[in-house]
């Protein structure tokens, strides 16, 4: 089954939005397969955002991600990568539709509370970076109430 990497950024943690954000993926019918509160170092944040290293906002972005603990998660389900991006909403909260996480809880692009992998390939890389330990394999007892 497809997996994605979701991170609640330091502003989401500090603002007490953790359960609200997790609840959106949980209530949708996706399954949490990894979860940890973590403070990351500059070099780790730079690795996570390596694809953006040439962008003018890169150092500010790294400062933001290391400004406090983040909640790192693996979520699993059918089309989970694309669907979680839709649940999260547009990168710039000004463009994010009401009902999306960024549309409901964020104002500035540099304080947009949550990260979600943008493709199955990035998800694979990000999960390997953030969760090098052995995966936890289990099937939820409500699986057949969500999946045909
Ligand atoms: N970002 C920013 N300024 C920009 C574009 C992006 O501060 O002009 C930040 C923003 O927090 C965004 C992150 O960099 O979430 C990663 O950018 P990306 O284009 O990958 O957006 P995302 O995949 O998070 O929607
Ligand atoms: Mg991205």
Written account of the structure:
Belongs to the NDK family. Keywords: ATP-binding, Kinase, Nucleotide-binding, Transferase. Pfam families: NDK (PF00334). The chain is α+β, with helices and mostly antiparallel strands. It has a single domain, classed as Alpha-Beta Plaits. Helix content is 41%, strand content 16%. The protein has 8 helices and 4 strands, in the order E-H-H-E-H-H-E-H-H-E-H-H. It has helices at residues 10-14, 18-28, 42-48, 58-65, 80-88, 101-105, 120-130, 143-146, and strands at residues 3-8, 31-38, 70-76, 114-116. It has a 4-stranded antiparallel beta sheet with strand order 2-3-1-4. The longest helix has 11 residues, at 18-28. It is globular and about 45 Å long. The mean pLDDT is 97. The structure holds uridine-5'-diphosphate and magnesium ion. Uridine-5'-diphosphate is lined by residues 52, 57, 61, 91, 109-110, 112, 115, 118.
